[in-house]
Design brief:
Blueprint: H1 9-19, E1 40-41, E2 59-71, E3 82-94, E4 98-104, E5 109-115, E6 118-119, E7 121-125, E8 128-132, E9 143-153, E10 165-169, E11 172-176, E12 196-205, E13 209-212, E14 215-222, E15 225-236, E16 243-246, E17 248-254, E18 260-266, H2 280-291, E19 302-304, E20 319-321, H3 326-334, E21 342-344, H4 351-367, H5 373-381, H6 405-438, E22 441-443, H7 445-456, H8 461-468
Helix pairs in contact: 2-3, 3-4, 4-6, 5-6, 6-7, 6-8
Bound molecules: tryptophan (TRP) and zinc ion (ZN).
């Protein structure tokens, strides 16, 4: 809600005041003509409890067009630093009347900001790019915001010390930005709640390949540089964007259902590094049979010879560090439905990503003739009640618990227990309806609990309490 109260401003304001209890204060808009703008500064965060400064208030970015020119590090030894020179063009719709708005930008310097063709005043304070648009912006009236920026690229880390964002490598970059690392490579409303479409033109020295999300729409060389153009036409959370650069071989083929696949495999890796990718097409067909159509226009893997120590489900094109194992490949593919098509509304909802992706890789392994989901569940439940593994509320793991083992394995066990409780029919209908109802959007744990109750017709409060909201080992449910 904005501060605009329209023609009923005074009366509604009095009613609102009357409804407040003692000790509370209210800000009531001054009476004015209907539609009179009340300009505000958009907030510096979108309102995520775990990461208060990620994302921004008052803006809805609908498209990012990213033109990046990247010079990888000199072959000399550390420090590994590259150079990025870029222009980001954002289609931005104000959701409030704004005299100021913020974008997230970390470690890079903006050199100009334009709205339309007009240069605007701006400043950078810590990881916030603050823009003062004149004329001011009115709710609902879309504008094009063009930011020229650049600087030295490093190897940024998240709050737990894991490499993320634009990670400079020996011969390029691994770009994996969960949860809030996108700001290390473009000005962004860096929260999954504000999804957008993306296009990329990434210019790198001839011989290197730049791989982003979606469809490869162009490759052209001039003057020793090659520009790789990618188009990602589906809604995407910022952390799922990538523009990884390396000595890649591109392999283009199709899944059995016709879906175009482009894998990018680092030429410097041993031949076995991509063994786990051979069944990607069958995995897509299998997950489609369980969860409905693959949600995007293409798929594929990026396997780099440098490492961030983990894989990420970057939309349509997951990134793997040095090796793509079959189980991890199934996990990152499952994220395309669970995490990417439907994303966490708050970072505290992360178990909906990791629990589902982990459970789905159990299902793939069983389908492929390996151990059963029941056996994997039993293995989790064999952990003694005294283990610190159980000492986590996975539906509220805290910002330092986002990628705790329990978020994955207890999350998967929760889903298996739910399946046993409500039966296969209701369980898989819940899964399909989840993806259908919240596709291109975000959802919360509460949304999931409500949907499972709606479809099963069962009261599942006690069940979810024990599995998701209690930091001890479930014993009965
Ligand atoms: N989302 C990744 C996955 O499970 C994991 C991930 C992202 C991660 N950032 C991390 C794991 C940092 C460990 C550390 O597919
Ligand atoms: Zn995952």
């Amino acid at each position: 809600m904005g501060a605009r109260m329209g023609g009923l401003g005074v009366l509604a304001g009095i009613a609102a005041l009357a409804a407040l209890g003692a000790g509370q204060t209210a800000v009531v808009a001054a009476p004015g003509d209907p539609g009179t703008p009340r300009y505000q500064a958009g907030s510096d965060g979108i309102g995520d409890d775990y990461f208060p400064l990620t994302g921004n208030g008052g803006i809805d970015v609908t498209h990012y067009d990213l033109e990046l020119r990247y010079t990888p590090p000199d072959p000399a030894p550390a420090p590994r630093e590259g150079t990025l020179e870029a222009t980001a063009t954002l289609d931005l719709t104000p959701t409030q009347d704004l005299h100021q708005f913020n974008l997230d930008l970390r470690g890079l310097t903006a050199t100009s900001v334009r709205v339309g063709r007009k240069p605007m005043a701006f400043s950078q304070v810590e990881n916030e790019l603050v823009v003062t648009p004149r004329p001011k912006l009115k709710t609902g009236r879309a504008v094009e915001v063009v930011v020229e920026y650049g600087g030295t690229t490093i190897r940024p880390t998240d709050i737990e010390g894991a490499l993320y964002g634009w990670v400079t490598t020996r011969d390029g970059a691994i770009v994996v930005s969960e949860p809030d690392g996108s700001a290390t490579w473009f000005p962004v409303n860096d929260h999954p709640r504000d999804k957008a479409t993306y296009s990329f033109d990434i210019t790198v020295p001839d011989g290197l390949v730049a791989v982003a999300n979606g469809d490869l729409v162009g490759e052209r060389s001039a003057g020793g540089w090659t520009t790789w153009s990618w188009d990602a036409p589906d809604q995407m959370a910022a952390y799922l964007a990538t523009a990884s650069v390396g000595n890649f071989e591109l392999r283009e083929y199709a899944a059995p259902n016709g879906l175009p696949i482009i894998d990018a495999i680092d030429r410097d890796l041993p031949a076995t590094a991509d063994d786990g990718l051979t069944q990607q097409g069958e995995m897509i067909v299998f997950f489609e049979s369980l969860f409905g159509p693959y949600p995007f226009t293409s798929y594929g893997a990026i396997v780099d010879d440098d490492s961030v120590g983990y894989a990420l489900e970057t939309q349509t094109r997951p990134v793997y560090s040095r090796v793509a194992n079959e189980g991890t490949v199934a996990h990152e593919l499952a994220h395309q439905w669970f995490g990417n098509a439907v994303s966490p509304h708050r970072w505290q909802d992360i178990w909906l990503n990791e629990g589902w992706a982990t459970y789905d890789s159990w299902l793939w392994t069983e389908h492929d003739g390996g151990s059963t989901a029941q056996a994997r569940f039993n293995a989790v439940m064999n952990r003694p009640a005294t283990s610190s593994f159980w000492n986590l509320e996975i539906a509220d793991p805290g910002p330092f618990g986002l990628f705790a083992g329990a978020v994955y394995d207890r999350g998967a066990a929760t889903l298996h227990a739910l399946r046993v409780k409500i039966g296969d029919e209701a369980f898989f209908e819940t899964a399909r309806e989840w993806v259908t109802r919240y596709d291109d959007s975000t959802a919360t744990t509460e949304d999931f609990e409500a949907l499972a109750e709606e479809i099963s017709g069962q009261d599942l409060d006690a069940f979810f309490d024990v599995w998701l909201h209690t930091p001890t080992k479930p014993t009965s449910w």
